[in-house]
Amino acid sequence: PAEDEARIEEIKGLLKANKAVLVAHYYTDDAIQQLAEETGGCVADSLEMARFGARHQADTLVVAGVRFMGETAKILSPEKRVLMPTLEATCSLDVGCPADEFSAFCDAHPDRTVVVYANTSAAVKARADWVVTSSIAVDVIEHLQARGEKILWAPDKHLGGYIQKQTGADMLLWDGACIVHEEFKAKGIEDLKGLYPEAAVLVHPESPASVVELADVAGSTSQLIKAAKELPNDKLIVATDRGIFFKMQQAVPEKTLFEAPTAGNGATCKSCAHCPWMAMNALGNLAGTLRDGSGEIFVDDALRLAALKPLDRMLNFQK
Ligand code: CIZ
Ligand code: SF4
């Protein structure tokens, strides 16, 4: 629509005027991802978003995603201004792991190395020995296991259970879940496979074990996009936020992508394959934060330094 066109032009001007760069997650809406691409920003998973933001020369990073991604950007780049289209965009994993309860859990298990998923608050990261994203979680846990370490993992129990199965590591799991991935149903995927037996199944391991078991490839968003290119199949059933279809279809324009069903019986679900918090990022509030700086992220200095340690371990980790 013409209204969006005008907004997009305005945002392009504001990005320049603010020496700002737009960093967007794969799960944000197509218009945001496209704008990030067109303006020299990046569209990526949370690990690559963090790396891109830290390396970039811009004065201001505009992070389109959820709160922890903006916080991570600020922790890694304290000298930059970090803006988000909305400060209300959280994550069920972050909400389900309050720092005080988590800290008590760690205190009760002092013999374990604390590894947390990137989808956590700065305060939870500050209590951890390691931060990981789903792109490198298995590699890091393998490395710790080889050193004989026992793990305390938080917050996603499905991802934790998947890593445990892959590595055989001794892992004590926090009881958290992603409201989007938790909705994928094995029955629905099996039914779809019945219709398209030649289709490959791609699954993000935040999904329940019954769904991951059906996967031809399980992996992070960037790993799934890579797999879409490498697999010979020209039909793909994809169990992750449907925002990923923008980049995945670009990567394999000739292939047919199917959304994995979120209900086995056609019933509606809470979140239906699209994260409600990612969806809060829109052209209107993106322009708004660039105009008035309303969505700026601040992280207290002591907290920042404490959270930086386990984040740096992740960024410096070589397999
Ligand atoms: O589910 C998420 O929020 C993901 C996949 C984040 C990430 O690591 O990119
Ligand atoms: Fe959190 Fe799930 Fe949304 Fe990702 S998709 S931000 S894990 S609620």
Describe this structure in words.
Pathway: Cofactor biosynthesis; NAD(+) biosynthesis; quinolinate from iminoaspartate: step 1/1. Its cofactor is [4Fe-4S] cluster. Pfam families: NadA. One of its GO terms (cellular component) is cytosol. This protein has helices spanning 2-17, 30-38, 46-55, 67-76, 92-95, 99-107, 122-126, 137-146, 157-167, 186-195, 209-212, 221-230, 245-251, 283-292, 301-316, and strands at residues 20-25, 42-44, 60-64, 81-83, 113-117, 130-132, 151-154, 171-173, 200-203, 217-218, 235-239, 256-259. The model has no long low-confidence stretch (mean pLDDT 96). The longest helix has 16 residues, at 2-17. It folds into 3 domains: 2-90 and 278-299, Rossmann fold, CATH 3.40.50.10800; 93-176, NadA-like (Rossmann fold, 3-Layer(aba) Sandwich); 181-259, Rossmann fold (3-Layer(aba) Sandwich). The chain is globular, with a radius of gyration of 19 Å. The chain starts with a helix and ends with a helix. By secondary structure, it is α/β, with parallel strands linked by helices. The chain contains 15 helices and 12 strands. Bound molecules: (~{Z})-2-methylbut-2-enedioic acid and iron/sulfur cluster (SF4). Iron/sulfur cluster binds at residues 27, 66, 91-93, 119, 178-180, 206, 241, 275, 277-278.
